[in-house]
């Protein structure tokens, strides 16, 4: 899964080969006689590349979010924020913004990729709006759509789509979050009345953290263990009414408000419990499991485990959309922080005038590598959307493609949501006190996106799923007979011996010839970058796989070894996600013709790659993958790339395509520039009039 380079890396393209653009400085990537300030990006072309396949869907959503009525009011009290968000969902319905993924007979377009692309852009208006809409149509509605059959669709989808029935997605329980298979809520079939009896037997079984549950939800898709004829058939989904037309709980249903949260307070999260609530047999969403009138259970999937994971796999779009929303939030934050940094002046420079923050090396280092990362995440997310659309459109709905979708979604969602918190915090700090003001949005975005790292799957759990997929692929490649296994292990041991003895580093030392420039040149080669990134993944997975193989058929020992390897497994999963992001970035570059735009994308891709190497230098040094000389070259080249990219930062930000109404941060919309111009004009006028006092001159020591 990770050990084969893409076809486009079997030879180095001329336009991005080491030194292809650099006939002067071998690491500069700029033609002789030119400077980096002469570089002109085609921002329209780059903007289209970032918008991706579903560009028009994104544009439609961006135009919609120009409406001030959809914008978050920072500091608004929770009750008013909740009421405002509820009404905003009605605006989306009236605008035709939510029908894209549904069947045409219900007014939809069966446009799955475009739906998520448009949905992610709602983040620019208010993350609460994006998530509340996601609860209604991406979870509640999607569960009915993808877990139900025609009978469910006819009965329930019209009210969901029109928003006549605000709904909930009631899966998580107080006692079980990511471990859905162990939930305790039951739905027991009563053949005498042809009803299911939904029941939460104890407090830990309450459905918790449920969007729309505290106030607005009129019905819910409730996940419960289906029991019929005394047999537990595992977790299934049921459509359960919650409240009457006046908003009062129906008999047997109860709940409470989760109260104020750390963010997303436009959503009324709450808890739900059920005391022997009866629903008709036909309220079972029965695509993957059904119960006949007499109580006989049937399913097109015989294996209970495969049935469970197939049902959950149909709901993967939540993770896909969170990945995209996290990328959108980072773009907004970087646009705010980088624009401010290009205008805010602080501290005298060598010429005596105050310099702009973005001209200081440390400020460049804290923001520009994160800019490179968000480009990588954008291109990776576009590939994830493509995989999602392939599966949900039915064009490539194979078990292998679904497995790829689940792995990509788990990996990218984890990496981008963690990255969002890091980037938002760094942008906040980079803007100083101005960044802490709510009006400049960074603190609000940081608070709202905090929960993204734990819902739709806790990131740590998701990365374990990715790691287990890597181990499965490793086992499929590893030999099974004793003699071949011995040779395989010996080869791995020889590889580790080469690492430890420095043989790998010796080859690099000869190639580098003691020259930092030679080291940098090699690190510019995409084949070298990928070999280092992929080699780290392969080695980490192989080490864990061989360790687990030592347990043989002793399942208890294997489980203990896996538990001890969890940290390494998660690190391997992260490394695999980073490799997939690098691959996506490189493939995006291939679609751009030679010229300045491609050149800058290569710089950004190189910065992303070298930044990853710099983060993990200890691993590469310990495993003999980099010499000390080449390790020094990594940081030196990162510094050089950051400085090279600095002049084109405004053009890169422009390519995001966000209007002032999307950004809505005064420090990024001319306020700081106006202050600086006013100050400069005042000092110039005072100096011209001779009104400035003389400065005290201290004697030199």
TrEMBL record:
Residues 529-667 form the Acyl-CoA oxidase C-terminal domain. Pfam families: ACOX, ACOX_C_alpha1, Acyl-CoA_dh_M, Acyl-CoA_dh_N. This is Acyl-CoA dehydrogenase. InterPro entries: ACOX_C_alpha1, Acyl-CoA_Oxase/DH_mid-dom, Acyl-CoA_Oxase/DH_mid-dom_sf, Acyl-CoA_oxidase, Acyl-CoA_oxidase_C, AcylCo_DH-like_C, AcylCoA_DH/ox_N, AcylCoA_DH/ox_N_sf. It comes from the Bacteria. Keywords: FAD, Flavoprotein, Oxidoreductase. Residues 87-162 form the Acyl-CoA dehydrogenase/oxidase N-terminal domain. PANTHER family: ACYL-COENZYME A OXIDASE-LIKE PROTEIN (PTHR10909:SF352), ELECTRON TRANSPORT OXIDOREDUCTASE (PTHR10909). Residues 1-36 are annotated as: Disordered. SUPFAM superfamilies: Acyl-CoA dehydrogenase C-terminal domain-like (SSF47203), Acyl-CoA dehydrogenase NM domain-like (SSF56645). Residues 168-277 form the Acyl-CoA oxidase/dehydrogenase middle domain. It comes from Curtobacterium citri. Residues 313-471 form the Acyl-CoA oxidase C-alpha1 domain. Its cofactor is FAD. Belongs to the acyl-CoA oxidase family.
């Amino acid at each position: 899964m990770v050990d084969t380079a893409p076809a486009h890396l079997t030879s180095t393209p001329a336009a991005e080969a080491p030194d292809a653009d650099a006939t002067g400085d071998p690491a500069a990537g700029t033609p002789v006689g030119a400077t980096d300030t002469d570089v002109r990006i085609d921002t329209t072309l780059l903007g289209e590349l970032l918008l991706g396949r579903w560009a028009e869907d994104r544009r439609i959503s961006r135009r919609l979010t120009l409406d001030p009525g959809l914008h978050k009011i920072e500091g608004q009290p929770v009750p008013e924020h909740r009421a405002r968000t509820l009404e905003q969902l009605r605006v989306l319905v009236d605008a035709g913004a939510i029908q894209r993924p549904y069947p045409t007979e219900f007014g939809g377009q069966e446009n799955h990729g475009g739906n998520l692309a448009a949905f992610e852009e709602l983040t620019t208006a208010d993350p609460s709006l994006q998530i509340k809409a996601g609860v209604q149509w991406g979870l509640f509605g999607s569960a009915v759509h993808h877990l139900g059959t025609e009978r469910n669709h006819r009965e329930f989808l019209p009210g969901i789509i029109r928003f006549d029935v605000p709904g909930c997605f009631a899966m998580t329980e107080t006692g079980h979050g990511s471990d859905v298979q162990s939930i305790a809520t039951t739905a027991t079939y009563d053949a005498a009345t042809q009803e299911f009896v939904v029941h939460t037997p104890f407090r830990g079984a309450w459905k918790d953290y449920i969007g729309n549950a505290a106030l607005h939800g009129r019905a819910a898709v409730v996940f419960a263990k289906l029991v019929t004829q005394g047999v537990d058939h595992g977790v299934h989904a049921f459509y359960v009414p919650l409240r009457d037309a006046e908003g009062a709980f129906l008999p047997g249903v109860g709940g409470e408000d989760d109260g104020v949260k750390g963010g997303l307070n436009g959503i009324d999260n709450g808890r739900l419990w059920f005391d022997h609530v009866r629903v008709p047999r036909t309220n079972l969403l029965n695509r993957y499991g059904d119960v006949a009138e007499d109580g006989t259970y049937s399913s097109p999937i015989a294996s209970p485990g495969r049935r469970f994971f197939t049902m959950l796999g149909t709901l993967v779009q939540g993770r896909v959309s969170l990945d995209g929303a996290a990328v959108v939030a980072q773009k907004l934050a970087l646009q705010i922080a980088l624009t401010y940094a290009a205008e805010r002046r602080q501290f005298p420079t060598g010429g005596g005038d105050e310099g702009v923050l973005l001209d200081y090396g440390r400020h460049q280092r804290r923001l520009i590598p994160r800019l490179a990362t968000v480009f990588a995440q954008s291109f990776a997310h576009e590939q994830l959307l493509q995989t999602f659309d392939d599966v949900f459109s039915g064009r490539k709905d194979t078990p292998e493609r679904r497995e790829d979708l689940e792995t990509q979604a788990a990996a990218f969602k984890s990496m981008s949501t963690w990255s969002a918190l890091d980037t938002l915090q760094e942008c906040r700090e980079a803007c100083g006190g101005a960044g802490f003001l709510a009006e400049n949005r960074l603190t609000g975005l940081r608070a709202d996106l905090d929960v993204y790292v734990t819902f739709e799957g806790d990131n740590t759990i998701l990365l374990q799923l990715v790691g287990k997929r890597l181990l499965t692929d490793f086992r499929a490649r590893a030999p099974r007979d004793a003699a071949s296994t011995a040779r395989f292990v010996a080869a791995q041991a020889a590889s580790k011996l080469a690492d430890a003895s420095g043989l790998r580093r010796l080859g690099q030392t000869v190639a580098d010839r003691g020259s930092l420039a030679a080291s940098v040149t090699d690190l510019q080669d995409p084949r070298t970058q990928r070999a280092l990134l992929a080699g780290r993944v392969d080695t980490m997975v192989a080490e864990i796989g061989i360790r687990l193989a030592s347990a043989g058929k002793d399942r208890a020992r294997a489980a203990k070894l896996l538990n001890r390897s969890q940290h390494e497994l998660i690190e391997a999963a992260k490394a695999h996600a980073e490799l997939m992001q690098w691959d996506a970035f490189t493939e995006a570059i291939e679609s751009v013709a030679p010229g300045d735009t491609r050149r800058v994308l290569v710089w950004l891709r190189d910065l992303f790659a070298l930044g990853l190497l710099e983060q993990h230098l200890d691993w590469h040094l310990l495993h003999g993958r980099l010499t000390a000389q080449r390790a020094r070259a990594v940081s030196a080249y990162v510094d050089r790339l950051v400085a090279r990219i600095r002049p084109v930062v405004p053009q890169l930000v422009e390519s995001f395509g966000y209007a002032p109404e999307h950004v809505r941060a005064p420090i990024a919309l001319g306020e700081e520039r106006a202050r600086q111009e006013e100050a400069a004009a005042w000092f110039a006028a005072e100096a011209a009039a001779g009104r400035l006092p003389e400065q005290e001159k201290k004697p030199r020591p």
